[in-house]
Amino acid sequence: MNKIIKTIFFCFISVYSFGQNKYWVNFKDKDIQNYDYEKYLSSETIKNRKRFNLALYQYSDVPVNPLYIKTLTNSGIDIQSKSRWFNSVSVFLNQDQLKQISEMPFVASVEPVNRDIIITGSETNLKPENYHIAMIQMQSNAMLAKNLTGEGVTIGVIDAGFLQANSDRYLVHLFEEERIKGQRDFQDPSRKDIMSESATDADSHGTTVLQMISGYYPQQKTQTGLAVNSNFYLARTENGAREYRGEEDKWIEAIEWLDSLGVRLVNTSLGYAINMDDPKENYKPEEMNGKTTRISKAAQTAVADKGIFVVVSAGNEGSNPGWRIISSPADAEGVLSVGATRDRYWDKISYSSIGPEFLNYMKPNVSCFSPNGTSFSAPAVAGFVACLMQMDPNKSNKELKAIMEKSGHLYPYGNNFIGYGVPLASRAIALMENPDFKLTHSDEKHVSGSKVQIKIDKNLNADVVLFHKKNETIVKYQEIGTVHKGRLKIKRIPGIARTTVAFGQEVLEIIWD
After folding, report:
1. Does 375 participate in catalysis according to the annotation?
2. Which of 137, 287, 305, 456 measures 20 to 30 Å from 444, CA to CA?
């Protein structure tokens, strides 16, 4: 596809006037005596937690003590965001205020906040026929044959905005069928309609994401997303007019809101990493460990404690020599991080971010084709997950994630370029119906020399993808090999311990002894 792939970056406009900087204020305790979970959790949230044997009473659900907030506001502090999960508020403070708050008896700590954001998407003026490529890759016909359309599944979308989603021809069915259950603007809570008018230039990004999850144009019988019959809550957390780490705060507020509503599946195409106004405030690569950034901690809490399945774009820094790796919250262990492949070869497209070598778990987890940025591969996969949830609403996050990975065309030989590869509906459905279903598409071959000739199909003349790895998962090179008359010649590259050969839906793992 002859397109220029580029990540949206916005200029940072400073809001740090009068010597103020951004902080999270963490409190020591909560008012647990007056807490009743039935007053704060929806009936759907309670039902989900009972279904997955999650605690109905969780300390993280207890609201921030209003007396603490009142004390701060009475001291002239403007509260930016509140998080009950972290028992914290975000604020701007000068040095005198910082000292004052740090000495308050109910304050546990005050954390400085770095600032910047990346939207892991790109241009949103895209052709719907390009969206359909991911559906073809993932075998959408197998889902449709089972009448799997995301029916009965509620999806939360946290994004930059949903401008004109209500008039988009691929989304009009959601509004005619009253499948949009709620919308909130966490950047500007006074806005009750986030679709009719634009707040910033980025507001159409979430509309395209929604098309990738559930788009359908009946007049042309064109389907751009798998979850055409799901319900949705929409959250705007990104301010396209200026870039600051306050968006991370708003994301946390949004995920807590979605949890209180009983949402089981969340898609987000936002990521935090580099390109900060002050280079000293950039995240370091080693901080993409799933444990450092607050947004990754929140995403992990959502998955592990609240029963929410979170799908995240991996990021678009794969061709940036100064970074290359995934952003947060894609680094959180429990989320399903989604990279991007090319259409024809199913190898990593250049911009797609890779998993850091230091992680002891797979990132990204899966990948599929995107017309422009991993922002649009993640929602394609989110629609896939919704269909599986329709099949069996009682499958836990852990079970669903395992099925998503096992359905990948490279499984079990995943790597840090595209994870376990493109999820295939036929495999996922078989695994949902029978957890003991045996996958037979892979094989191993030990090679003691420096080259090998593989026999595939004597009549086959085709290109195959080779992932040359220094160990079981870390790719050093990917290349396209040519099968001629059913034979493929492979040479061992110095420093390479394994080579994954992917041809069609079959995979061969060469282990160089």
Report:
1. yes
2. 137
Burial (CB < 10 A; 0-12, 13-18, 19+), residue 348, is buried
**Burial state string for 268-282 with b = 16 or more CB within 10 A and e = fewer than 16:** bbbbbbbbbbeeeeb
**Which of 336, 42, 310 is CA-nearest to residue 157?**
310
- Predicted local confidence at residue 460, as pLDDT: 65
* The pLDDT value given to residue 130: 64
Phi, psi angle pair for 230, to nearest 5°: -80, 165
Q: Which residues of the chain have pLDDT under 50?
A: 1-18, 115-125
Q: What is the pLDDT of residues 188-201, one digit of tens each?
A: 898 888 898 888 77
Q: What is the distance between the alpha carbons of residues 235 and 256, in angstroms, rounded to a whole number?
A: 11
User: Which position among 205, 230, 259, 313 bears the catalytic label?
Assistant: 205
The DSSP bridge pattern shows strands 222-223 and 216-217 to be antiparallel
Question: How many CA atoms within 13 Å lie on the side-chain side of 510?
Answer: 26
Residue type, 455: K
82-85 — which CB contacts under 8 Å span 24+ positions? 82/253, 83/249, 83/252, 83/253, 83/256, 83/298, 84/60, 84/256, 85/60, 85/61, 85/252, 85/256, 85/298, 85/301
Q: Coil, strand, or helix at residue 497?
A: coil
Which one from 61, 159, 185, 203 is the annotated catalytic residue? Answer: 159
Question: Residue 470 CA to chain centroid, in angstroms?
Answer: 27
Give the separation between CA 374 and CA 261, rounded to whole angstroms. 27
Angle between helices 128-137 and 378-391 (to 10 degrees): 50
What DSSP state is assigned to residue 437? P
* CA 384/CA 463 separation, integer angstroms: 28
CA 113 to CA 220: how far, in whole Å? 48
What distance in Å separates the CA atoms of residue 419 and residue 412, rounded to the nearest whole number?
10
Task: Render 213-230 in DSSP notation, one character per residue.
Answer: HH-EETTTTEE--S-TT-
Q: How far apart are CA 421 and CA 413, in angstroms?
A: 9
Please give the Cα distance from 348 to 200 (Å, whole number): 32
CA–CA gap between residue 290 and residue 302 (Å, rounded): 13
Q: Is 205 a catalytic residue?
A: yes
Q: Is 450 designated active site?
A: no
pLDDT for the residue 332: 98
Of 337, 375, 377, 407, which residue is the catalytic one?
375
| Distance, first Cα to last Cα, the chain | 39
Give SS3 for 36. coil
510: enclosing H helix or E strand: strand 506-512
DSSP string, 214-282: H-EETTTTEE--S-TT-EEEEEE---TTS--THHHHHHHHHHHHHHHTT--EEEE-EEB-S--SSGGGS
DSSP assigned state of 493: P
pLDDT score recorded for residue 244:
56
> Which pLDDT value is given to residue 10?
33
